[in-house]
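User:
Hi there, any thoughts?
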Amino acid sequence: MVAQPVRIKGVDPTVADRGPTALRIAVGGQLRRLREAAGITRDDAGEHIRSSHAKISRLELGRHGFKDRDVRDLLTLYGVTDSDQREMFLELARKANEPGWWHRYNDLLPHWFETYIGLEGAAHTIRTFEGQLVPGLLQTEDYTRAVVAVRHKSPDSVRRVELRRKRQEILDRPAPPKLWAVLDEAVLHRPIGSIAVLRAQIEHLTRMTDRPNVTIQVLPYRTGGHPAAGSSFTMLRFAERELPDIVYMEQLASAIYLDRRDEVGRYHEVMDQLAVQAAPPAETNSLLHEAAAAL
């Protein structure tokens, strides 16, 4: 009996719009599904490409670039023999290896933040708690400029502001991520730049709440203590089910990425509690208008 050629399910065309990190994740997921359908272990697949199960795991999670030779060998091992199918898959893998748009800013970016930008662009849902500043995806240009002036005493401020603006473009994509931000009320009273800059920033937040993919809540002073006191963090969730959620916490000279289920689960609990303690979106809108009017 002649074995039937294995067909590769096409990648959702909107994935490429999310950037090379998203495409790498999608291609890695396809490799995982092909391996599992063929009944092949990661150990055997790793040995077939002269490597290890750890490399196969990184490839399947989209955390490693693709070499043509490795992909060709894996497709052969998994029974994908149709030349058109193989070439289509190889082309996707090559595109996934292309530098992201942020590559031209790599002289400004620490390596740990380059990783975050790629993951942010690949995320399906972004949930963030901020206790000090307006989250980057929601900042006005003037507010960003003021933040950059405080953090970076260098002639690169124009490009840093431009980089922040480019990141915000993910909210304007045809299939944008869902952004859910909880802000401590202190954020509305900290005059970054000037009172006028802060007022314009708060007015911008009220406009952003009109977007169907954006939810903003303010955590009022009257709620008292809360489980995230003294910290800020962001949670990224991906459309690809095999990928774990990631918690990102930025520090002065580094960042922490968490993806262990128990650690991420704790942050899920905290974020859910913050959302309950914070003013609901409708009330938040009133708080934003009041804060802007009081400045």
